[in-house]
Amino acid sequence: MTTIEAPRTPARPARKGVNWEKWGWIYMRLSGILLVILIFGHLLINLVLGAGVKQIDFAFVAGKYATPFWQVWDLLMLWLALIHGGNGMRTLINDYAHNVLVNRILKWAVLAAVVVLIVLGTLVIFTFDPCPAGAHAADLPSFCPAK
């Protein structure tokens, strides 16, 4: 007869309220499906269609970020991927960091990294300006009109 080992994470008594583990599990499945669609769409547009990788330069990125569609597309990829990865890291920390203090420190570090990267990435997506006002003409790309 085969026996199944006890799980590493001890069972907890049922709690009242929101089951965050269940919603985290559901989020991982749904965000994973959406990320596959977003990432393959991103790869198709950037690498397969057009001139391939040779077309990707500053002007290409500037052209993409000039339209709200691509800003939202990249924003969804950024947020979903970082939260998906952060949730995955949280699960690994729960599985392997048994010391309560180490567990909390690692989870706070992952949360801090995810928040900082989401904020910085979102700022880049929405504040990207290839032709900033007041810049010297020598510092601007060739497609920017001299101001």
Automatic annotation (TrEMBL):
Keywords: Cell inner membrane, Cell membrane, Electron transport, Heme, Iron, Membrane, Metal-binding, Transmembrane, Transmembrane helix, Transport, Tricarboxylic acid cycle. The keyword Iron applies. The chain crosses the membrane at residues 26-53, 65-85, 105-126. GO terms for cellular component: plasma membrane. It comes from the Bacteria. This is Succinate dehydrogenase hydrophobic membrane anchor subunit. Membrane-anchoring subunit of succinate dehydrogenase (SDH). One of its GO terms (molecular function) is electron transfer activity. InterPro entries: SQR/QFR_C/D, Succ_DH_anchor, SuccDH_FuR_B_TM-su.
